[in-house]
Specification:
zinc, RibonucZ/Hydroxyglut_hydro, 2 domains, metal-binding, EC 3.1.26.11, single chain, 312 residues, 18 strands, Metallo-B-lactamas, Metallo-beta-lactamase, Chain A
């Protein structure tokens, strides 16, 4: 099953002709999650052929315009498309306070319900789960309350070895327990180890989204060992002082977080428009963490189910 991230926008506050403000779509086994919703998001969804109706959960990191100004337009469009299924929006405590009146004024005749869920930006906690995925908040250090999100697949049950079950005449009623990892115990007390009857399932995959934030090692325990990390890199090290003052990070700092957290891959994004050559971000980060990649609008990053390295 697929686990992938499509970049809809990777720039900071000011959009350019090539890059839109922050927005991403995460596909976890055909469950589509919209992460941030900067201006132009619905146009980017169309360009990338992502059906609006597939999105039922939206995660907003913070209430700066370049991360949420696209939300009112998207909500209105969903109403015009005849949506009837509930839409769930997760974000800092003021999210409903900001967007509730907009919905009441512009979208009063919508046939679907918008459900707001307040996220505590001061601690990491489970904010959503279904049978395949869990989503945890990641406290970020920014000028206003902000949080990232960790998407983690749930561990799948072990795979049955049919030939072994037949050989040992395992009763059908035992199969659910064996898939959960239990050994089989026959009526005469004989124990058949689970390792003889099953194979491990594919390793659960994970993705962490961290934007906007100044350098903070406090997030490392939350994102430790994730397969793919998106970490904002608004500035290069030549503007580290400005990054600190505006509560943002440099490409080098993002790489340091990735290295200390032991992540597999790092995606850089949220570039300041003062930089025309984004290759400099990759170069700076790679000096610290080799597996660093640049986000660009329209790019998709896949995490394979097999555990083999993906080709970015």
């Amino acid at each position: 099953m697929r686990f992938s991230v499509t970049i809809l926008g990777c720039n900071s506050a000011l959009p350019t002709s090539e890059r839109n403000p922050t927005a991403q779509v995460l596909n976890v086994s055909e469950r589509f999650f919209l992460v941030d919703c900067g201006e132009g998001t619905q146009m980017q969804l169309r360009k990338n052929k992502i059906r609006f109706t597939r999105i039922s959960h939206v995660f907003i990191s913070h209430l700066h315009g370049d991360h949420c100004f696209g939300l009112p337009g998207l909500l209105s469009t969903l109403g015009l498309l005849g949506r009837t299924a509930d839409l769930h929006i997760y974000g800092p405590s003021d999210t409903e306070k900001v967007f509730g009146p907009i919905l009441a004024f512009f979208c009063r005749d919508m046939k679907y319900k918008v459900c707001f869920h307040s996220v505590d930006t001061d601690k990491s906690e489970l904010v959503y789960e279904d049978k395949r995925v869990e989503v945890f908040s990641i406290p970020l250090t920014h000028r206003i309350p902000a949080c990232g999100y960790l998407f983690r697949e749930k561990e799948a049950e072990r795979h049955i070895i049919r030939e072994s079950l037949d050989f040992y005449n395992i009763p059908v009623k035992w199969i659910p327990l064996i898939k959960k990892g239990l050994d089989y115990v026959s009526e005469d007390g004989t124990v058949i180890p689970n390792s003889v009857l099953t194979k491990p399932s594919a390793k659960a995959r994970s993705y962490a989204f961290c934007s906007d934030t100044k350098y903070s090692e406090a997030i490392i325990p939350v994102i430790k060992d994730v397969d793919l990390l998106y970490h904002e890199a608004t500035f290069l090290s030549d503007n580290e002082g400005l990054a600190d003052m505006t509560f943002h990070s440099t490409a080098r700092q993002a790489a340091e977080i990735a290295k200390k957290a032991g992540v597999k891959k790092l995606i850089l994004g949220h570039y300041s428009t003062r930089y025309k050559n984004t290759d400099l971000f990759r170069k700076e980060a790679a000096e610290v963490f080799q597996e660093s990649y640049l986000a660009e609008d329209g790019m998709t990053f896949d995490i394979p189910n097999s555990g083999r390295d993906s080709e970015f």
